[in-house]
């Protein structure tokens, strides 16, 4: 029998209440893992999916997914939560009778394990959306069978419902599914009901559903990947209810699963569970605010009631009590001879706000805590938290010795912020010229409305899809500060991989954009700049740390032979390939043509000698271009080298810097590095002059990228500050500058795309962007010095932006050196 309360030290609950405030939910990660372990022990052949609807907290999901559960989601937020919790698309099922187009589009982009289709109409809709994306999406059909579950507290099938496809219609829908070229039927789904506490009911359900599946499969051409038999396992809440007998359930269900498996070896049985997994791990804690007697009944009024724990309050019908205990000074056993029935209420203006009726307990005092067990499911997620404006409570997780706030309490500011009026332009009547809406908060996260950016790359819809990368970038950005190898976490993300390999010719690219989930198959230069700007809002370090074709890629394509192109790009067919563009010299002035590196003869053999200082992860680069003077002719040359070809002739040293560590500033020294003719660019008939033109072009195309990084970083800092929206007036002018500079950047991009780059404009916009981000940092330190001092991420990102001033190809090498000497050796 599982305990009705997790085994948490009661003094700790007291301390959490003092520190985090009340009301709050407290989850125990070990209980979450224990539930999954018990299920697996009872039903070893079954694949378990966690239904986020029962508790979509990111950390709860992360623990359960981290312990092996798949994710069953019903909304965009639950889908993105699963991804952030680490789930790969193959471990996500989407179920729900009214999925929106946005949700479906995202699920298809990701290529999730299956979208569970609930009607014939939805089948057509998903097929059309998948066609638009040029994809084939896996689907499962949700069946509303003719049988129903006897012992469920809430029946959801076997009767008229909005869920699934009636069994009688199934043959027609199956035929329809077969004719949909962009759908692949891979599963069946049935969900009979919830809060089942008798194992016989589960056994009957599983048996019935597997029989139905056997019947259906016989009419299909290919086997199914899975049959989802639902779940609905209950947990005891009320007096007299007992725990589901998992042993008996396992003993009866396992033979059914085994015999189904014997005849359908390719088809896995899936069970999706919410409450059973999340419920017992959670307790709800609220504080007594008032006690009183009214007409003979005793009341304790608490600071959280049905508004934050609707499950304990029941939903209008006769309610019973969840497990409830009174805590005082870290103890639950309170001696009181006069224990009597108490009604526990919340702070709402309705008599229905009752979370405990006639609870026999010691006399509560103001300040005591009330803890309610079995509360991890449907309380935190299904409660009307906005009623009377109290907002969502805090959520805390205990995991062994770690204690974490896993959801902060809603703040008054944030709830007011989303209510600031903004101009609603109806699609049918849009007329930007007559709209004089003030810059409103709603515009904050879409810098592309009515501001000169419409129809430019900065309003491309795929930019919004990058938002899902925000946490990954912010977390990795912080880690890069300590460990330059942290970029691998970025590479694991399919979208980031595809973005990294932009510029790699298609035949060498194993990670094309069409697989990225962004809904695009190629990325013109302007969109690339816009993406860099968007990602820099999250963290510019990450962009710089990624092992892409760097600035060398363009030069190799412009001037390399086919063999050289293949040598340079071939690595991207299978994995990441770090590259470098070693042009600048540490002590030879600002211009590459002044460089001291040489390509000369030693003992009759060609060798390279020289020293370069550069950003871009040269320490882990596989291949790159090295600029040198050819001794014999006095001309300039570009040589493609792979440091691992002659490791004894290469020394690479990471240089200490005090910022933008993801850029990984390094020094590379070549000593008599052996060179053969086929390594020299331009030697295969293509003029080396083309190569230098290409280098110039590479720098001209890169400068707007640096500008975009600076603008994005500044904007990201402002967004961090505006997490408290009352600060908006202090930053509004900077938001306007940001937009104005994006408009300038668009002009530069258009000139580039028309092959008429205006060198001066490019430099100007870069300088202005750098000065903009500098201004943002000054404003933050002027306006919010306390936040600046308290927030390590803010300080780090403010520090990092200084480096943009110095990041610019050859003509600013002196600045790069100044930057280095200014910051070298200053450890964090
Ligand atoms: C389709 C579906 N799956 C899973 C669940 C989760 O149910 P429970 O939390 O009872 O396991 C529900 C609950 O309504 C549901 O409708």
From TrEMBL:
The modification N6-(pyridoxal phosphate)lysine is found at residue 53. The keyword ATP-binding does not apply. The lineage of its organism: Bacteria, Pseudomonadati, Pseudomonadota, Alphaproteobacteria, Rhodobacterales. Keywords: Decarboxylase, FAD, Flavoprotein, Lyase, Pyridoxal phosphate. Residues 34-278 form the Orn/DAP/Arg decarboxylase 2 N-terminal domain. Belongs to the acyl-CoA dehydrogenase family. Belongs to the Orn/Lys/Arg decarboxylase class-II family. GO terms for biological process: lysine biosynthetic process via diaminopimelate; polyamine biosynthetic process. The active site is at 349 (proton donor). Residues 581-672 form the Acyl-CoA oxidase/dehydrogenase middle domain. This is Diaminopimelate decarboxylase-like protein. Its cofactor is FAD; pyridoxal 5'-phosphate. One of its GO terms (molecular function) is flavin adenine dinucleotide binding.
């Amino acid at each position: 029998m599982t305990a009705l309360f997790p085994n948490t030290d009661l003094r700790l609950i007291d301390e959490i209440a003092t520190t985090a405030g009340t009301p709050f939910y407290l989850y125990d990660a070990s209980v979450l893992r224990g539930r999954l372990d018990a299920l697996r022990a009872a039903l070893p052949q079954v694949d378990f999916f966690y239904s986020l609807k029962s508790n979509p907290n990111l950390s709860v999901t992360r623990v359960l997914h981290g312990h092996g559960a798949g994710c069953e989601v019903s909304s965009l937020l639950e889908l993105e939560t699963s991804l952030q919790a680490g789930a790969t698309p193959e471990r996500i099922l989407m179920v729900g009778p009214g999925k929106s187009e946005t949700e479906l589009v995202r699920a298809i982009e990701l290529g999730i394990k299956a979208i569970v289709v609930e009607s014939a109409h939805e089948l057509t809709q998903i097929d059309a959306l998948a066609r638009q994306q040029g994809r084939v999406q896996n689907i499962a059909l949700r069946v509303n069978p003719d049988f129903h579950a006897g012992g469920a507290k809430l029946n959801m099938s076997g009767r008229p419902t909005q869920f699934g496809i009636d069994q009688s219609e199934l043959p027609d829908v199956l035929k329809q599914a077969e004719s949909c070229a962009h759908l692949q039927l891979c599963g069946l789904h049935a969900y009979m009901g919830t809060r089942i506490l008798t194992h016989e009911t589960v056994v009957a359900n599983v048996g019935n559903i597997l029989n139905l599946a056997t019947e259906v499969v016989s009419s299909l051409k290919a086997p199914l990947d899975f049959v989802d038999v639902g779940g609905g396992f209950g947990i005891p809440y009320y007096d007299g209810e007992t725990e589901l007998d998992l042993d008996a359930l396992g003993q009866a269900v396992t033979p059914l699963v085994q015999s189904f498996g014997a005849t359908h070896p390719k088809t896995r049985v899936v069970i999706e569970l919410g409450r059973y997994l999340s419920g017992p791990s959670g307790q709800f804690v609220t504080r007594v605010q008032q006690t009183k007697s009214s007409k003979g009944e005793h009341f304790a009024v608490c600071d959280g009631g049905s508004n934050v724990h609707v499950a304990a309050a029941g939903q209008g019908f006769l309610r019973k009590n969840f497990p409830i205990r009174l805590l005082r000074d870290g103890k639950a056993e309170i001696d009181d001879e006069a224990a009597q029935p108490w009604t526990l209420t919340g702070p709402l203006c309705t008599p229905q706000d009752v979370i405990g009726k006639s609870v026999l307990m010691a006399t509560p005092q103001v300040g005591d805590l009330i803890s309610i067990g079995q509360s991890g499911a449907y309380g935190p997620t299904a409660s009307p938290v906005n009623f009377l404006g109290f907002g969502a409570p805090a959520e805390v997780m205990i995991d062994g010795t770690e204690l974490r706030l896993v959801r902060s309490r809603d703040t008054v500011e944030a709830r007011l912020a989303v209510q600031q009026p903004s101009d609603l332009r109806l699609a049918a009547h849009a007329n930007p010229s007559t709209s004089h809406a003030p810059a409103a908060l709603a515009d904050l996260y879409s810098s592309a409305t009515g501001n000169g950016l419409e129809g430019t790359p900065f309003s491309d819809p795929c930019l919004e899809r990058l938002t899902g990368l925000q946490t990954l970038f912010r977390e990795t950005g912080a880690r890069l500060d300590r460990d330059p190898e942290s970029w691998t976490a970025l590479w694991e993300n399919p979208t980031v991989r595809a973005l990294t390999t932009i510029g790699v010719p298609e035949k060498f690219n194993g990670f094309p954009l069409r697989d990225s989930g962004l809904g695009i198959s190629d990325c013109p230069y302007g969109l690339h700049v816009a993406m860099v700007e968007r990602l820099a809002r999250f963290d510019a370090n990450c962009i710089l740390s990624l092992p892409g074709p760097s600035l060398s890629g363009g030069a190799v394509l412009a001037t390399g032979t086919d063999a050289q192109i293949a040598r340079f790009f071939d690595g991207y067919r299978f994995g990441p390939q770090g590259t470098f563009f070693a042009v600048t010299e540490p002590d030879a002035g600002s211009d590459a043509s002044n460089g001291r590196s040489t390509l000369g003869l030693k003992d009759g053999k060609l060798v390279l000698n020289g020293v370069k200082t550069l950003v871009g992860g040269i320490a882990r680069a596989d291949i790159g271009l090295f600029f040198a003077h050819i001794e014999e002719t006095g001309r300039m040359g570009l040589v493609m080298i792979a440091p691992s070809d002659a490791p004894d002739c290469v020394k690479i040293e990471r240089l200490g810097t005090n910022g933008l560590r993801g850029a990984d500033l390094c020094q590379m020294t070549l000593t008599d590095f052996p060179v053969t003719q086929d390594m020299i660019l331009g030697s295969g008939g293509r003029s080396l002059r083309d190569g230098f033109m290409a280098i110039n072009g590479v720098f001209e195309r890169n400068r707007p990228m640096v500008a975009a990084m600076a603008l994005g970083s500044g904007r990201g800092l402002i967004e961090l500050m505006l997490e408290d929206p009352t600060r908006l007036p202090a930053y509004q002018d900077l938001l306007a500058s940001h937009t104005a500079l994006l408009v300038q950047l668009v002009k530069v991009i258009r000139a580039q795309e028309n092959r008429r780059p205006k060198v001066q404009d490019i430099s100007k916009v870069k300088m202005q962007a750098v000065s903009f981000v500098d201004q943002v940092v000054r404003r933050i330190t002027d306006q919010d010095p306390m936040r600046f001092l308290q927030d390590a991420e803010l300080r780090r990102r403010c520090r990092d932006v200084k480096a943009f001033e110095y990041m610019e190809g050859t003509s600013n090498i002196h600045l790069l050196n100044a930057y280095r000497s200014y910051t070298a050796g200053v450890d964090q």
